[in-house]
Amino acid sequence: MICRAALYARVSTSDKGQSPDNQLTDLRQFAAGQGWEVTTEYIEYESGGKADRPQFKAMMAAASRREFDVLLFWSLDRLSREGALKTLQVLDQLSRWNVAYRSYTESYLDSAGMFAEAIVALLATLAKQERLRIQERVKAGLDRAIREGKKLGRPLRVVRRDRIIELRRAGWSWSRIGDKLGLHPSTVRRAVKVTTLVENPVLEEVQR
Question: What is the mean pLDDT of the chain?
């Protein structure tokens, strides 16, 4: 049975003067040497750090439909530069779809090779470390914001309940009142329905 191969070549917009042709030449020759039939070539001119690369998305969609059996790319950083976690997720998803992968310049990155499990385990470790670093950066940022006295979360808006009641008595609809006061109609209705603060004409908007 002939193995159907898809090629993925990428050059960044910042790679001035570079062309994907060099990658494609080597990838085609390698596929031919393996006896693979190249059915599709995905050529990208985007940064590898972007998740919404058109050709990458098209390649992943085709992989999910098993339109090819193996994905051949020049190197891991040509496939993705989104970090170890995202890259591991891509390789893991390909494996779940029973689509093999192979890096041309990194022979150890071969899902059918003898080091496949070791490499995936290494990538998983790197991904875990990256996840921890992200969490630490977020926590450090929150701690710094608290020390500087910054309020976290969406700021509360002041709702003039007495003004809402006045406009309702004048025959205004909830939507019209919302437009007038810059509030969502549901917020307007909630403000009027609050019964525990009837004596207070000013309410803070309740966050959902």
Answer: 80
Cα–Cα distance, 65 to 57 (Å, whole number): 13
Q: Which residues contact 119 (CB under 8 A, 6 or more apart)?
A: 108, 109
Residue 30 structural domain: 4-127
pLDDT tens per residue across span 122-131: 766 766 776 6
- What CATH code is carried by the domain that includes residue 110? 3.40.50.1390
> How far is it between the farthest Cα atoms of the chain?
83
Place of tokens 């940064």: 47
Residues 45, 123 within the same domain: yes
pLDDT, residue 199, reads 42
Cα pseudo-dihedral 84, 88, 89, 90, rounded to 10: 110
Provide the pLDDT for residue 17: 60
What are the angstrom distances between the C-alpha of 77 and each of 27, 38, 63, 136, 138? 15, 22, 19, 25, 26
| Window from 33-42, 55-64, 97-106, 111-120 with minimum mean pLDDT | 111-120
Domain finish residue from 107, 127, 147: 127
Q: Are strands 37-44 and 158-160 parallel, antiparallel or unpaired?
A: unpaired
* Helix, strand, coil percent values for the chain (each to nearest 5): 50, 15, 40
Whether 137 maps to a domain, the answer reads no
The radius of gyration of the chain's CA atoms, rounded to the nearest angstrom, is 28
Residue 15 or 173, more confident: 173
- β-bridge partners, 4: 37
